[in-house]
Amino acid sequence: MKDFGFSPMKNKVLNFDELNHDFHQWIAIQDSSFNLCIACGTCASTCSAGSYTHFSFRELCKDIRWGNAEKAMKESEKCMLCGKCSIACPRNINTRNIIKMVRKAAKTSPL
Amino acid sequence: MKQEGKKHIWSNYQKEIAEDRYFYVRSCIRQTFFPGSENTFLKILREVLGKDVHESPNHTTCTGIGYHCEVVPFATTQTVVARNFALMRDAGYQNYTPSCVTSFGIYTEILDTWQHFPAEKEKTRAFLKQATGREFEEPNSLAHTSDIIYKFRNEIAQKAKYQLINSETGEPLKIVEHIGCHYAKMFPEKSVGGAEYPNVLAGMIDAWGGNVIDYPERRHCCGFGFRQYLIQANRGYSMSASKKKFESMEAYQPDFIITNCPGCNYFLDRWQYVLAETEQKTYGSNGYGIPVLTYEEVAGLVLGFDPWEMGMQMHQIDVEPLLKKMGIKYNASEKFKGPQGQELGLPEFPEHVKFTTQSDN
Description:
The complex is a heterodimer of chains A (111) and B (361). Helices cover 50% and strands 0% of the residues of chain A. Chain A is built from seven helices and no strands. In chain A, helix 4 (57-65) packs antiparallel against helix 5 (69-76) and helix 5 (69-76) crosses helix 7 (95-108). The model of chain A has no long low-confidence stretch (mean pLDDT 91). Chain B has 16 helices and eight strands. In chain B, strand 7 (256-259), helix 14 (262-279) and strand 8 form a beta-alpha-beta unit. The A-B interface holds A 1-2, 4-9, 12-13, 38, 40, 90-91 and B 185-188, 195, 232-237, 239-240, 243-244, 274-275, 277-280.
């Protein structure tokens, strides 16, 4: 076997078929614009809360997609709901509403 | 939905592509990776379609690789791009046509920046004047070269010598189309079909008789990522992304992959070799890999161009099984000969992924 100095990193590869998609699906039903996200990170780069904390809407989306519902709910508390990310989003995603839906899920446990 | 509204929404997915008189700019890396593709594009445009395409020997890089690796400041990138635009105006052309998807992304991003921040444009104008004495104007149209082949796909189909059909079974070839992220994901409205329905390669496949495979990871990035491949230890991230795609498409038994991005083309081709050598896994049939072709190569094959003149022997994954499948007549003994017929010598062949040698024919 040849050694190229790198490998496919099997332990870090995610299989989307094995993840729990319930939370993602619930969010997408509440606000279908969620599925337009291309993870460009414009939201995170413009985020005021992100300047002072480790909050990132991009990471929040990733957690929703990966089924990390609890982490997403906890992270959503850091948002100030200023809505700047909604203006910056090139895909016109209603980011503010998605945060509100994540918070709603934390309060009402809809799943 | 109201028809008017539907038309309005669909118009966002269309793109105006100039008819003729293109100012062509080459890619930094394509001439090394797939050396015949750019010449094939010029041959198709000039000799097959009779279009006017101008190339300037003074054209430079767009700085894309340095920009995305954060070693070139944005102001520098803007000035370099402005200089290339100045060359276009000096030559009397208005339709800018980059061969590279990263360049297309850079040009699109800068034109968008200038639209939203006119002060940046004026600053760039001053920098360019100070540095080179040149003045520039924005192009009237900006289209990636795959947009242009897409625009003329039906004309190419009319002049086709071969179709994307298995000559033995008569069935359409099963083709994976892979679009570069910087083509449609950054500025979807600047592409054919946007980020959701990118049709630039699928349209070519349809026009030339093939079948597009819709597999689960179709829109997954190839993993190229400038910061990933530049650092050896990070290349595993890049290869893992490609591997995910290969595993997803494998079940559909694709005959080949077509791409419109230099990086995707290179890595989908080369990672198959690395995966074969490290994991003894191949994704094509009978121990071969899945050939990865540029859209110019596919158009060239359809038009009956010689595969070796198009540089297809430079692929890591052998293309000969595909040529045979399509019933293309080619001379196997010319595979490793130069343009004047001189012997170039044989490359080192991989151990775990098959590669046709002359003795196999």
